[in-house]
Specification:
With about 325 residues, this protein is an alpha/beta fold. Helices cover about 35% and strands about 20% of the residues. It is built from 9 helices and 13 strands. A hairpin with a 3-residue loop joins strand 1 and strand 2. The structure holds zinc ion. The site of zinc ion has 5 residues, from loops. One of its GO terms (molecular function) is ATP binding. Keywords: ATP-binding, Kinase, Nucleotide-binding, Transferase.
Length: about 325
């Protein structure tokens, strides 16, 4: 075994992660190592402009790295794909994508077949192959960002359900008639266990008690409307009690949802990523406690591990590249 870089073009693939705010892409080798990357802001929500941007970043990577025109190309897209991975049926954060034939449009632009999957699925795949889920054939990956992204690996395969839109756990209802959600439903998990929920809790805490919320208000420059998730993380890391309490609340809901998922799926591991997980144990501690408290049959069954993701924000394109390299469509 050697860690020397592979010969030019050998075993390399290009992955592209298309999110609501940015398009990130990279050249990835068969060990999941990133040899080069490129980024652009997502250019509005017009599908043709998004396609232009995808073609641009792939062109840039092809030119800068000896990947060759034959290198497989995988795309992780922030949308709900049909079972063949051909059409984006719906994308809560990319309003232009409604029944959009993304795969064939990009394939025609690049002159090669491309593999498309949901971005949370490509992240789950990356963590399974190269990250915190290595060697664990039954895992659930939960990305706690603004909302919740999630992916399921069972028997070493990404699972999509019958119609392609399975494993959207962020839209599992945890509070009947609860907060409205972008998916059209109410009380979804992502309304309670996400960055959005964290910031909402922090704003409520700070406006309810200016004394207790002094540090949070200070980080927001005195205007709570501009408070961000990373601000709350900063305050919590400093030990600010109001911010720590916000993480306890979001962690509680995270653990509550994971316990429900354990009842349905019985995975060996939950891998938790996304920006909110940068807070580490401030989030995972309360999540583990509530997971244990809410797990059906607790004390009489093995408990899944709840661990932090290892690959960071590049996991989306690393997994997309690897799925494409393996020629794994994963879809019927
Ligand atoms: Zn929802």
């Amino acid at each position: 075994m050697t860690d020397a870089p592979p010969a030019a073009g050998h075993g390399l693939a290009i992955g592209v992660d298309v999110g609501g705010t940015k398009v990130a892409a990279g050249v990835v080798d068969r060990h999941g190592r990133i040899l080069g990357s490129a980024r652009r802001p997502t250019p509005g929500h017009e599908p043709a402009l998004v396609a232009d941007t995808i073609a641009e970043v792939v062109g840039e990577l092809r030119a800068a790295h000896a990947v060759g025109l034959e290198a497989p190309i995988g795309i992780g897209a922030a949308g709900w794909l049909d079972r063949r991975g051909a059409r984006v049926m719906f994308a809560p954060n990319l309003a232009g994508w409604r029944d959009e034939p993304l795969r064939d449009i990009i394939s025609a632009r690049l002159g090669r077949p491309v593999v498309v999957d949901n971005d949370a699925n490509t992240m789950a795949w990356a963590e399974y192959r190269f990250g915190a889920g290595r060697g664990c054939a039954e895992l659930v990956c939960v990305t706690v960002g603004t909302g919740i992204g999630s992916g399921l690996v069972l028997d070493g395969k990404v699972r999509h359900g019958a119609f392609g839109v399975g494993a959207e756990y962020g839209h599992m209802q945890v509070v009947p008639a609860g907060l409205p959600c972008g998916c059209g439903s109410q009380g979804c998990w992502e309304q309670y266990a996400s960055g959005r929920a964290l910031v909402r809790a922090a704003r409520e805490a700070a406006s309810g008690s200016p004394q207790a919320g002094r540090r949070l208000a200070g980080l927001a420059g005195g205007d709570l409307a501009t408070l961000t998730g990373p601000d709350v993380t900063t305050a919590a890391r400093e030990g600010d009690p109001a911010a720590v309490k916000c993480f306890e609340e979001v962690g509680y809901w995270l653990g509550q949802g994971l316990a429900s998922l354990a009842a349905v799926l019985d995975p060996a591991k939950f891998v938790i990523g996304g920006g909110v997980s940068d807070a580490g144990e401030l989030l995972l501690g309360p999540a583990r406690a509530q997971f244990h408290a809410a797990l059906p049959g607790r004390g009489h069954r093995p408990e899944a591990e709840i661990v932090l993701a290892e690959l960071g924000p590049d996991a989306g394109f690393v997994g997309a590249a690897d799925l494409a390299r393996a020629g794994i469509l994963g879809r019927a």
